[in-house]
Design a protein that fits this description.
Number of helices: 1
Number of strands: 11
Order of helices and strands: EEEEEEHEEEEE
Radius of gyration: 20 Å
Strand content: 35-45%
Largest sheet: 8 strands, antiparallel, barrel
Helix content: under 10%
């Protein structure tokens, strides 16, 4: 598959920067290019120098109706996010998703020798403090995106604006080349709530 051919560390690749056209997504409006009864074109812009990310929706000639969702991003550390979305019935998920647990960590008391071994392991690249498994570099392919604001403009005049606090998503870059980018975006990072975005490059950063 295309994603199987993804180069290493796509989230750190300079080719991510620029303006991308969303050719396909299974995400709901407005990410799919639909705003109310109006269908338009969806874009994503990444500014690597500023560490910002924007989702854009433009309807009609000149984008007479437009929506812009601005966000900042950092490399994801692998800690799952809490799902703050609401179900259709008005309730939330019964189980909150917290930080990932350290599997296999010792629970017993430590000795001076244990402390010395832990110190030595700390100097070994790619090995966790438990010394049992490689540390996964989540940031090489994933961003934690923090939404900052949403605005809607009609004929260039802002008619709606909303600020966000503590609203984040995980963007997993699963394929990248000079012209194509595939992202799986989810609310928690667990993977079971991801939406896929297939995009083609419009302009470089």
């Amino acid at each position: 598959t295309l994603e199987a051919a993804c180069p290493p560390a796509p989230a750190r690749d300079v080719r991510v920067g620029g303006r991308w056209f969303v050719d396909y997504t299974d995400a709901p409006p407005p990410s799919n290019g639909v705003l109310g009864p109006f269908a338009g074109e969806a874009f994503q812009e990444v500014d690597l120098a500023r560490g910002t990310y924007s989702n854009l929706l433009e309807v009609g000639p000149g984008g007479w109706l437009a929506a812009r969702l601005d966000a900042t991003y950092v490399e994801w550390d692998g800690v799952l996010l809490q799902d703050t979305r609401k179900k259709a019935d008005g309730g939330g998920k019964e189980e909150a998703v917290g930080a990932a647990e350290n599997i296999g960590a010792d629970q017993g008391q430590t000795t001076p020798l244990d402390g010395l071994l832990e110190t030595v392991r700390g100097f070994l690249p790619g090995v966790s403090s438990e010394g049992r498994k490689p540390v996964e570099d989540y940031g090489a392919s994933c961003w934690k995106v923090d939404f900052r604001s949403l605005s809607i403009k009609l004929l260039g005049i802002e008619i709606f604006q909303k600020k966000f606090e503590d609203t984040a998503r995980i963007w997993k870059m699963t394929y990248l080349d000079d012209e194509t980018r595939v992202v799986r975006a989810g609310a928690t990072g667990a993977g079971d709530d991801d939406f896929v975005f297939y995009m083609t490059k419009v302009d470089d950063a």
